[in-house]
Structure to design on (200 residues):
C-alpha cells in the first residue's frame, strides 16, 4: 500500500516537472573575450563557464509583471504631470514678479524724463541746450516701456501655461490616484486673477 502511494506521488511530481520544466542557461567567454549566453553548452575551450538554472515564467506571471510595469508607468506619468504643473506655476509667479519690476522701472524712467523736461521749462534756449539729455531720457523711457510690455506678455503666456498644466494635474487628482500633491483645487485656480496690464 505504501509502495503504491509512493509511486503515485512520484508520478505526480514527474508530471508537474514536465509541466513547468526548469531550463539551463550557459554563460561563457570565448577566446576574444566576448561573453555569450545560450541554451546550448559552451565549447570545450570556453573560459569562465557558468550554468544557471531557471524556471520560465508562466503566462499569468508574465501578465502580472506587465500590469505592474504599466501601473508604475502610469504613476510615473501622473507624477510628471503634477511636477510640471508645480513648475509652470512657479514660472508664472516669477514672470509676474518680473513684469511688475520692469513696469515699475518703466514708470520711473518716464517720471525722470517728465521731471527733466519740466525742469528745463519752455525756454527755447534751455530746451536746445538740454536737447541731448531730453532725447536720451525719452529713449530710455520708451525702451523701458517696451520691455515692460514684453514682460507683461511673457507673464500672460506663463499664466496660460500654468493654468493648462494645473488643469491636467486636476484631472489626475480627480481620478484619486495621486496622494498629497500640494496642488490647489480647480475652483481656486479659476479665481486666480490675470496679470495686470502695463499702462502707457
Amino acid at each position: 500500500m505504501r509502495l503504491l502511494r509512493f509511486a503515485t506521488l512520484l508520478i505526480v511530481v514527474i508530471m508537474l516537472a514536465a509541466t513547468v520544466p526548469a531550463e539551463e542557461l550557459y554563460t561563457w567567454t570565448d577566446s576574444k573575450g566576448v561573453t555569450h549566453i545560450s541554451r546550448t553548452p559552451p565549447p570545450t575551450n570556453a573560459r569562465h563557464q557558468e550554468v544557471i538554472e531557471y524556471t520560465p515564467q508562466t503566462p499569468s506571471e508574465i501578465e502580472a509583471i506587465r500590469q505592474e510595469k504599466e501601473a508604475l508607468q502610469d504613476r510615473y506619468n501622473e507624477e510628471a504631470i503634477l511636477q510640471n504643473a508645480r513648475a509652470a506655476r512657479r514660472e508664472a509667479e516669477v514672470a509676474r514678479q518680473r513684469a511688475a519690476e520692469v513696469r515699475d522701472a518703466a514708470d520711473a524712467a518716464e517720471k525722470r524724463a517728465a521731471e527733466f523736461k519740466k525742469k528745463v521749462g519752455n525756454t527755447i534756449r534751455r530746451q536746445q541746450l538740454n536737447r541731448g539729455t531730453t532725447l536720451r531720457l525719452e529713449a530710455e523711457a520708451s525702451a523701458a516701456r517696451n520691455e515692460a510690455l514684453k514682460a507683461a506678455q511673457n507673464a500672460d503666456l506663463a499664466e496660460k501655461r500654468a493654468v493648462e498644466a494645473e488643469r491636467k494635474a486636476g484631472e489626475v487628482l480627480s481620478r484619486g490616484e495621486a496622494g498629497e500633491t500640494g496642488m490647489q483645487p480647480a475652483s481656486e485656480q479659476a479665481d486666480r486673477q490675470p496679470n495686470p496690464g502695463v499702462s502707457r
